Amino acid sequence: MSSNEPIALTQALASFDALWSPRIVTQVNDYDVRVAKVEGDHLWHVHDDTDEFFLVLDGELRISLREPTGERTVTLPKGSVFTVPRGIEHKPSAPSGAAILVLEPTGTSTVGDRHEDIPDHVDATTGHRLTP
Description:
Number of helices: 1
Radius of gyration: 14 Å
Largest sheet: 7 strands, mixed
Order of helices and strands: HEEEEEEEEE
């Protein structure tokens, strides 16, 4: 998937309503650039072999982390970026809703390599193609 035309992220986000169900807007080398609408809690999960990059496009995202030194939560307002290091258990949440951009290797599952039970509102996927 590649495009030789610009992609308007606002239009990409307007093309779907599903929460926690990312759409692949483009690829960079072997990485997917995904956008998602999120609200409420995701689930505790870990990516064993890859970092996960987040950019908040709108709203506020919180990411709880279980690190070797203990548990903490980072708060990302609109325009903020954060990278969850590989191997760190984390749980994104957006109590008031948010729109995010995520960068991770193509084929990476949204629920990681290890995770708790998947709730019905979370789409366990490697991303969906963006449809016009």
